[in-house]
Amino acid sequence: MTSCTVPAAGKPTFELGPDEMEIGIGIHGEPGRQRMKVKTAREIVEMLATAVVEDLPFKAGDEVLAFVNGMGGTPLSELYIVYNDLSDFLEKKGIKIVRNLVGNYITSLEMQGCSITLLRLDEEMKRLWDAPVCTPGLRWGM
Question: Is the CB of residue 4 less than 8 Å from the CB of residue 12?
């Protein structure tokens, strides 16, 4: 929804109108692949998730880790709206979220927006994901 401001440049990398958004932005503030009028969260999730689900492709019965990442300036409450819409979208396709990560993890300063990542999980991947983690960004099982 907004570009980041790279400190060396001192100004936003690109400009969006108040009623515009870009799909396919780069994590370092690169402009996106497509500019359009702002859509609802559900419509945005459908565009993003369809591209991801069809690319691998995922299929009914798959178990996944769903990662909804904020770009740095997106409130956590909005990321959970995206996660909820993603959960509904995947449920309709028979894809089950068995692990999730929602928050600002891979950011680009104050950029507003989000990304969706899906990782197909099998039993070994679930076991590895559930192993204790103690890093500055992730902590569980300790």
Answer: yes
Q: Does the annotation mark 104 as catalytic?
A: no
Does this model's pTM top 0.70?
yes
DSSP states along the chain = ----B-TTT-SBSS---TTEEEES--TTS---SEEEE---HHHHHHHHHHHHHHHTT--TT-EEEEEEEE-BSS-HHHHHHHHHHHHHHHHHTTPEEEEEEEE--S--TTB--EEEEEEE--HHHHHHHHS-EESSS-EE--
Q: What structural domains and CATH numbers belong to the chain?
A: 40-134 (3.30.1180.20)
Q: Exactly one of 20, 28, 39, 138 is catalytic; name it.
A: 28
Tell me the pLDDT tens digit for each residue of 32-85: 889 999 999 999 999 999 999 999 999 999 999 999 999 889 999 999 999 999
